Amino acid sequence: MDTENIIDRLLELFPAAEKSELLEVLVACDGSVDQTTKLLEEQFGKVQQASFEDNSQKSLSFSCNHIEKHTVKALDASKRGIKREFSQISDGEVNLPHQTTLKQYGRNIGQMKLCKRPGKAVTLYTKEEVEKNLPDLVFVRDFLTKELASKLLSALVSKRAAFTHNKFYIAGQKCQSKHYTAIFRDLDASDTEKFIYRDSGKKNVQKFFTEMKLCAYAVEDKVNEVLSKRKPKSSYQIRKGWKANLCVSNLFQQEKQDLDWHSDKLTDIGPLPTIASISLGATRIFRVRKITTARNGGDSTIFNIPLPHNTLLVMLPGTQEKFKHCVPSVDGCLLDLHPVVGKVRYSLTFRMIRNELLSGRPKCPKCGSSMVLKRMFKRSETRGYYFWLCGSQYSGYKCRGFYYGKFDKINVPGEGLYTNRQSEATRWIGNSE
Ligand SMILES: O=C(O)CCC(=O)C(=O)O
Ligand SMILES: [Fe+2]
């Protein structure tokens, strides 16, 4: 039975679940349908036994690799399902004014059916709601002066040529993002000049322009103020002097362009990073949910956060480790147009490239390629360990070169940030993970 069939069968057992969610749990359980079923039962209640036929049950314990081959197909299928839903619910609706009331937001978010399960999707409109439900997020409306926000938006519009689709590999298959991205670096301030941001691929890296630099200063001040008031989660996170020296800017030109569930890559920004983003243009929804583990009972509540023009959203240390986020398509249900750019939305996501990571990172012990930094979360025995994995897989090859991450001496110049020994490895586990 291939992955798509298994997902279909699981969907019959757990009709309230999303296909993409079933796939995620199946992958997290290394393809074991038994374990997947148990985990899902904790969340959705017990199902009748023998729902999977006996003979297929035996052949259902297969390796993660097997899933990977089918993942793209299954994800596509699950997206097709979601698309169908969107087109059904968005028929014949919505002509929104520029200024949308909270009530209207609620109505439109309801129409978008961002989550199938009643009670499992929560929409957070205000600073108080966001920060109470998600204490590692900071939400500030009208963050920049009106004038700077407008100038920044116009400058981005004039740089349209810098924005291209992201190209990447999933399970050896070349894929392309629906939205557009451009990479900007604060080259003046940086002593990491030679360094090309890994995510940029063959992208042209642009220099911060004047308005972006002003925005980066404001963001740095805010982030450092917030970090100084919080208890650090570890000794190896940035505690002060956070710099917005990299900006990954996203362009969503129309409602259909989305950004799939992900957590941001740690390779250049390190463990427990802070990422701060400014939204400009049309209001789009930012969705956040915990990464599902057995210990959090498969908690998959989805938080919808509408991000109006000139809103700052900071993801503090721990957010990339514990949560996934995405910007869903809002086909036919745009929440709020912008008076100048209409349905177009830009996000400017500021990050800090850490010099320590540039000097202390390993090369793949098997093939010499550069390596990517990740964190284990699938199995409770190893959850929270950081590890370096050969990066060649992202260009379609499969080398499994591996080290554990070791960050206890990240601030000591010349220290390698890797080890072969689990006993020396750095591990971080969040509450209720
Ligand atoms: O557009 C947004 O608000 C989110 C962008 C994002 O998640 C990213 O650039 O990694
Ligand atoms: Fe992201």
TrEMBL record:
Domain of life: Eukaryota
Organism: Dekkera bruxellensis
Protein name per Swiss-Prot or TrEMBL: DEBR0S1_12442g1_1
GO molecular function: dioxygenase activity; ubiquitin binding
Pfam families: 2OG-FeII_Oxy_2 (PF13532)
Residues in CUE domain copies: 2-44
Domain Fe2OG dioxygenase intervals: 243-354
Record key words, sorted: Ubl conjugation pathway
Coiled coil: none
Gene3D superfamilies attached to this UniProt entry: Alpha-ketoglutarate-dependent dioxygenase AlkB-like
InterPro entries according to UniProt: AlkB-like, AlkB-like_sf, ALKBH3, CUE, Oxoglu/Fe-dep_dioxygenase_dom, UBA-like_sf
GO biological process, any: DNA alkylation repair
